[in-house]
Amino acid sequence: MEASKNLIGLKDKVVKFCNSREDILRFSGHIPKNLRYHANAPQKQPVQKLIGRISTTEFLNTKNILDSIIRTNYELKWNTTYSENEVGTDFIKRYGWFDLIGPNGPFHMEGIRIMIGYWGANLDYQMHWHEAEEAYVPLAGSALFWSEHNGTKIAGVGDIVIHKSNEKHWTKMTDGFLLALAIWKGTNLSVNPKISSRDGTKIHEVKEKKD
Length: 211
Ligand SMILES: [Fe+2]
Fold this sequence. Notes:
Helix 1 packs antiparallel against helix 4 (about 65-70). The protein is α+β, with helices and mostly antiparallel strands. It has helices at about 5-20, 20-30, 45-50, 65-70, 85, 90-95; strands at about 95-100, 105-110, 110-120, 125-130, 135-140, 145, 150-155, 160-165, 170, 180-185, 195, 205. The protein has a 6-stranded mixed beta sheet with strand order 2-1-3-10-5-8. It is built from 6 helices and 12 strands. The protein has a single domain, classed as Jelly Rolls, CATH 2.60.120.10. It starts with a helix and ends in a 6-residue tail after the last strand. Strand 6 and strand 7 form a beta hairpin. The site of fe (ii) ion (FE2) has 4 residues, from loops.
């Protein structure tokens, strides 16, 4: 099966964007444009409604990628890694992410996994950590990021936030929504995050829901 024009368009724009940014290149290396395609069946999530409402003209540097995400919205396999018990109902309803490039496809690559995630205004993405090294690259909106090594910092379009393997980090959507690339690097990119509970006392082993 071949990828749709919309999905190929989104992949090409993200690859071009990543390869054009020195800071992303330093993290992930050059991303090839030609990648084997394996279809991921679309998956609906409440977050899709919010994706459709992004005013892309406010983000001229990334507008082409944002328009492409909106066009592809209902072809994408949207996921929510966590359970309501771990992060709360509001979080589950206003957050989601999908794989674009990586070992899980839809465009196959080993060693690098590129996801795109959305977090609604005022959400609090609790402290979590994971084996993969990570670079967050905002494509729209901005947020307050914290990690053990970086401390707190507001990051928006044009910035990059890097987390080392198993470095604890959290994000607060203090300034509206955030839509960002999440780029993972490592040898086993399917190991899921661990997350602390909302009151900070309990640590959850996150088991990603499989198809
Ligand atoms: Fe992370």
